[in-house]
Structures are given as structure tokens and as C-alpha cells.
């Protein structure tokens, strides 16, 4: 993530609201400035912590350190090949217990951002797709292909219904305020020729049709269909992102690496990298994952990065009201000034 030089004048990023029992959910919507929770615009800092890359015993400490570092949201992918290792056989125990992980987020007074995928990449074996999909007759992954869409929809629905049954969505009083369908599909879409664009339309409509009550996003998908928000993954989103594809959608960074400029929702990838246990890491990926994160593999705070970001978050949050409600303008200082 490197060094961060930021100004409240160039950054839209905020304060979270909590109750003693944890975060209090509410209705979630958005406009061209930010997410809106219970009628309040929110400028939010998020950080990626993947539940299967640490142990359940570590989760409370990791989330607590993220909170004290100034984060408002914890983000994670959902790992299809862990949860459905064999067709129709599901596993939500131990390191795979995503419900327990989300409840731990809520208990610490933070929001949750869940990236279902089902393809996640994430330097994870097979991009999170279960290997048994190979045996499905006629399947073509991530395209307008009926066998793939059937299994993708089944798993996505399984996860959404699990969250609903546990009351984890914000309108139910839970912490989940944002979710993602697919992942960086634009990078691969051209390879599927005429089968690519219809798949994007289908995936968006399928996700929205699940009626979770919170917004969906597609990262690196500049043509994400309404009401799905197109978001940025990259090192310099502040400079390279062309922006939301509608004036009514906010600027959101789902994977932020080194740039913290503009955007009302910024997610650090990663805030804690953790460990690729067993053979879960993809080819040429080390067991230790993302060693530049503010919290290291073992759950220890990495200074000075963690402390610098904590100070940064505090400064930005002190300006949040102006950033989210003020009128943005630029005043040149003259030809000899920057």
C-alpha cells in the first residue's frame, strides 16, 4: 500500500454508527455521493480479511485491531469450493463458518461487505470454483451457458438464503450493507465473444432478483447494469477509474492498493492477508498471503503502516460532513502554482 498522501479536498471517504450490542442495521440505498444507511450518507473505510485464511480463534482479535485502526467495514469473498466441495454437500464449519465470522464483525460494531462471486480469483485455487464443475456435461464457465448458470445461481441463492435465515442483512438488523456478484469479469469477457455480455446482464438480474435489500456491485465492469454499481479494483483508482456509469451511483473502490483519492467507500486489499492453508493457494502463490497488509499473517499489527492509516482515517473522518454534503470546486492558484 505504500505511503499515503491525501487531502480532505481530494478524497470522499466514514463514520460508522453502533449500539452497545454491535452495529445496528437499517435500510441501505445510495446516490451519486455515497451509500446511504438509514437516511444518512456514509463515508466508509473497509478492509479485506478472508475468514478461511485465519482461524476462528483469531477472528475477534483481527476484527478488533481493524476497528481500532479506523475501519468501518470488513470485506470478504465467499469461497465456493470450500463450502460445496462436492455437489450438494455443504460445509460451514470451523474456518468455513462464514456466519460466525459475520456475527463477529457485527459484535465489534462494524459493517460487512460480502463478495459472493462465485468466481473470486483472490489468488485462490481455481478462483474459488469447485472442481466437480468439470464433470458437468456441456459446461462453459462464466458465460451465457445454461449448466454453469444453473449451478452458479444455486450456490448464490444458497448463500443469500443462509444470510437471510440468520438475519444478517442490514434491513434485518444485521451488518451486511454491500455485496458483489461476479469478480473482475471485464478482464475475461472478450474471450467469451457473444456469450459474455448476456452473462453480465443475467448475473446482475439474478442477483438483484434475490431481494436482499442491500446494493450489489460488480468490480471492473464499467457496463454493470442498473441498479448494480460498477466499482474499481486497482493501484490507482483515483487516477484511472472513469467513474460510475450513472450519476446516481457512488464511486466505490472494492480493491484499493496504493491510491486513496476520491471515492466514498474504500476497501483495502488486504488489511490482513493471513495463510493459505493446505493447498488452497493458486499456482506460484506462497503459503503466507499478502505480507504488506497492516495486520501481518500472525495477527500482529505492522507498524508504521497500521498507525499511519489510523491517523489518516481520523483526519478524513473529521471532514466527512463537508466531503459528503459540500459542493466540490477547484480554484487555480495561478500558472506558477500547483
SSE diagram, text form:
Blueprint: E1 18-19, E2 22-23, E3 28-30, E4 35-37, E5 40-42, E6 44-49, H1 59-68, E7 73-77, H2 80-83, H3 98-107, E8 111-117, H4 146-165, E9 176-181, H5 196-208, E10 216-219, E11 229-234, H6 237-240, E12 252-256, E13 265-272, H7 305-318, H8 320-325
Helix pairs in contact: 4-5
Domain Glycoside hydrolase 35 catalytic: 34-259, 260-314
Organism: Coffea arabica
GO molecular function: beta-galactosidase activity
Structural features, described:
With 338 residues, this protein is α/β, with parallel strands linked by helices. It has a single domain, classed as TIM Barrel, CATH 3.20.20. It contains eight helices and 13 strands. It has helices spanning 59-68, 80-83, 98-107, 146-165, 196-208, 237-240, 305-318, 320-325; strands spanning 18-19, 22-23, 28-30, 35-37, 40-42, 44-49, 73-77, 111-117, 176-181, 216-219, 229-234, 252-256, 265-272. The strands form three sheets. It has an eight-stranded parallel barrel with strand order 6-7-8-9-10-11-12-13. β6 (44-49), α1 (59-68) and β7 form a beta-alpha-beta unit. α4 runs parallel beside α5 (196-208). The relative contact order is 0.18.
Key attributes of the depicted protein:
338 residues, alpha/beta, TIM Barrel, eight-stranded parallel β-barrel, three-stranded antiparallel β-sheet, globular, disordered N terminus
